């Protein structure tokens, strides 16, 4: 991993690029071109060969920071959803009286609180162990859950606002783009699912391929054998 100053000969920023409908003047990412760029040996960050470890250490905390900010956006979307439900009237009265709207509000609150607790637990484990490798699966779980709950809650709030919700006079479109971006930033969702599954499977072992450990006839027979042994011991003690 190298530190390359922007003024280094051969470094060229082709142009800035944004996400979604973000304008170029507000874009914070860029296309970079490197042409025979050379930097001094002391511009190496960390030891040679350690770039992945350095990146993952930084990204571990970064993913939790993304999650914290996502919770704030979820609360914002939820507040707008509830305000709209209690304000907008249809032929049958306020939207809040409709069962489908009540269900969306309930689902959103539950999903937000579940995600909040997962983030808090993961942050607690990071503080407890001071070892990102030890909580790798928990961080991956947060990363997987984050874009989904962000998308689902924001979409409900956006559609509840009707045509206004999809206009550029409300923040929902930008929030939906942010949810999609978070599914890629700091590692794609699919990669984190693989990481999580592999980490979880390390705590298990395979068994008899014919009869799983919870196969009821097998367990029943084993229980009979144990009871028979107990009865034989009791009879022998009489």
Describe this structure in words.
The structure is a single chain. By secondary structure, the protein is mostly helical. It has 2 domains: 11-43, no CATH class; 51-201, Butyryl-CoA Dehydrogenase, subunit A, domain 3 (Up-down Bundle). Helices cover 60% and strands 7% of the residues. The protein contains 7 helices and 4 strands, in the order ββαββαααααα. It has helices spanning 51-87, 99-129, 136-160, 162-165, 172-182, 189-201, 216-237; strands spanning 11-17, 29-34, 89-90, 93-94. The strands form 2 sheets. Strands 1-2 form a two-stranded antiparallel ribbon. Helix 1 (51-87) runs antiparallel to helix 2 and helix 3 packs antiparallel against helix 5. It is flat and about 90 Å long. The N and C termini lie far apart (77 Å). The model has no long low-confidence stretch (mean pLDDT 93).
Task: Work out the count of structural domains.
Answer: 2
What is the CATH homology-level superfamily of the largest domain?
Butyryl-CoA Dehydrogenase, subunit A, domain 3
Lateral strand order in the biggest sheet: 1-2
Under the CATH scheme, which architecture of the largest domain would be assigned?
Up-down Bundle
Q: What share of residues is helical?
A: 55-70%
CATH topology of the largest domain: Butyryl-CoA Dehydrogenase, subunit A, domain 3
Q: Mean of the pLDDT scores?
A: 93
Which regions have little confidence, pLDDT < 50, spanning 5+ residues?
none
Count of helix runs: 7
| CATH class category label of the largest domain | Mainly Alpha
By oligomeric state, this entry counts as: single chain
Number of strands: 4
Strand/helix succession: EEHEEHHHHHH
